[in-house]
Amino acid sequence: MSGTSMDGIDIAHLRSDGETIAERGPFLFAPYSPDFRKKLAASLDTAKSIEERSQRPGDLADIEKELTDLHANAVARFMNEYDLKADDIDLIGFHGQTVLHRPGAGMTVQLGDGQALASKTGVPVIYDMRAADMIAGGEGAPLAPAYHGALARGLGGEWPVAFVNIGGISNITCVAKDSGLVAFDTGPGNTLIDQWVEMKAGIPFDQGGAIASEGGVLRDLLDHYLKAEFFHAEKRRSLDRNDFLPPDPSAASLEDGARSLARLTAEAIFTSAAHLPEQPKQWIICGGGRQNIVIMNDLEELAEKTSASVFRAEDLGLNGDSMEAEAWAFLAIRSRKGLPLSWPETTGCREPVSGGILAEP
Ligand SMILES: Nc1ncnc2c1ncn2[C@@H]1O[C@H](COP(=O)(O)OP(=O)(O)OP(=O)(O)O)[C@@H](O)[C@H]1O
Ligand SMILES: CC(=O)N[C@H]1[C@@H]2OC[C@@H](O2)[C@@H](O)[C@@H]1O[C@H](C)C(=O)O
């Protein structure tokens, strides 16, 4: 799995029948080099000219090849580190890198050559898992909810339970005790914070929220984002990384900007969650944003108003870094068995729909 923050490749090993989780295995993160991150960032602009999803304008074909090779190398490292052979792995779930996501136009593009990954690793690969959902009228995202639902069944405590993934973009899955899942993207996660600290100080992210904790919230800056139609529209929709852009560098000091954008991440989650049929009693936070103490404190403050509790995934024995990669393994198994990856309540598709393409080595 390589997410919208474009920081690297997450690899997780999962044993499951696509319904329940038998075992969560080891995890490895293979970071991209600063050079490759730059290439990926530039590829988002190049991808804007794509009119048909198989097109690879400019250097996108080269980047796709490099990305696939990096994934194959990361899989080899993972197998070596954990003493696994190709025969020990039934399937690889391959997300690829989203470079364009336009649900309104029914188009989502992930770079990544599933066939080449299967040939290089010697393991069957399931890839392109978002496309079928879009053909069925869905947003193409989020897809992790199927896995959040399976994880929730193993938890105790009060219901409903919400899983919030704070990655580049944030998304929520709300699981009620006796009914299905409701899920949607909630707004900016870490991307704006990453872009802001990069722009102002040349650093890739605000480690631990240290910069934000030195700043103050600029309410006007925050309200400008929260006024966006995305938060108030009747219909929930999925986000492209470029749907929200960072503030102008002159808009704030480094610290106040980081503080305000951290607050935005937290308030965006609660503003979007107001569209849920029922408010969660437990909030489980995963994704890199859970490491930002300022975001976490803001979430706790906002949850207190509804007498709900906020947990880091680790508090409940889960792994907030590997969860998305585990989800892609789980989805690959479901795809192989023809089980749904998405439902009307998770992506807005017309009926439950499976998806993904199988590539044999
Ligand atoms: N120690 C940390 N302190 C603060 N922020 C962190 C820390 N570690 C990671 N992050 C943030 O988390 C981001 C990566 O999160 P994650 O890997 O969950 O995103 P992703 O999976 O790429 O995105 P998405 O879920 O949107 O697809 C980084 O870009 C950074 O902003
Ligand atoms: C198009 C796309 O890649 N969307 C990502 C992105 O990152 C978070 C959020 O936006 C979510 O909708 C999705 O990823 C997660 C893993 C998902 O589909 O569940």
TrEMBL record:
One of its GO terms (biological process) is peptidoglycan turnover. Pathway: Cell wall biogenesis; peptidoglycan recycling; Amino-sugar metabolism; 1,6-anhydro-N-acetylmuramate degradation. InterPro entries: Anhydro_N_Ac-Mur_kinase, ATPase_NBD. ATP binds at residues 3-10. It holds the Pfam family AnmK. It catalyses: 1,6-anhydro-N-acetyl-beta-muramate + ATP + H2O = N-acetyl-D-muramate 6-phosphate + ADP + H(+). GO terms for molecular function: ATP binding; kinase activity; phosphotransferase activity, alcohol group as acceptor. The keyword Cytoplasm does not apply. It comes from the Bacteria. Keywords: ATP-binding, Carbohydrate metabolism, Kinase, Nucleotide-binding, Transferase. Its EC number is 2.7.1.170. Belongs to the anhydro-N-acetylmuramic acid kinase family. Catalyzes the specific phosphorylation of 1,6-anhydro-N-acetylmuramic acid (anhMurNAc) with the simultaneous cleavage of the 1,6-anhydro ring, generating MurNAc-6-P. Is required for the utilization of anhMurNAc either imported from the medium or derived from its own cell wall murein, and thus plays a role in cell wall recycling. This is Anhydro-N-acetylmuramic acid kinase. It comes from Flavimaribacter sediminis. The lineage of its organism: Bacteria, Pseudomonadati, Pseudomonadota, Alphaproteobacteria, Hyphomicrobiales.
